Amino acid sequence: MPCTQGDQDKLFEQAMAQFGQALGRIAAAYEADAERRLDLLQDLQIALWRSFASYDRRCSLKTWVFRIAHNRGTSYILRQKRMALSRLCNIEDYELPSNQPCPESLTDLQNAKAAIHQIIDALHPPDRQIMLLYLEDLSGTEIAQITGVSAGAVATKISRFKALLARKFAFSGDAQ
After folding, report:
1. Beta bridge partners of 32
2. pTM of the model
3. What is the pLDDT of residues 51-64, one digit of tens each?
4. Residue ranges of the alpha helices (H) in the chain?
């Protein structure tokens, strides 16, 4: 059963308390420009608040929030970058640039995170969405529920992403 206006407000407040920081990170992942990032964050918050009018509790609040945020983020990317889609690629097609500094020179965590986000920024929106959710520490099952992609496909994409990171940073084991 859909929520009442009062329930909608309470759910929004609860969601913002629990996932507000994650929404900020999602906005930052979808938009590098600080001013446009604030606009996107506001758009995510408005979309989330509106979405609670139809929230029927068939999934967890966490799944709902991330589904709304990533769907809106993906729509934003598609609107903003229609002309630039040719520079995006699938995980399988991503090639490490040879003119980038060697992984040994990436000494601090900020540079490593920037390198990871550079890879993610080059991905098509569906792959980008999966990787951003993975970085938010969601399970494969949760990612599948949010994205509508099968759990097997999510696992494959994550595995390929880890392999790509292992090559980028030249170490074996989990690239977390």
Report:
1. none
2. 0.64
3. 999 988 889 999 99
4. 5-30, 34-51, 61-80, 109-121, 125-135, 140-147, 151-169
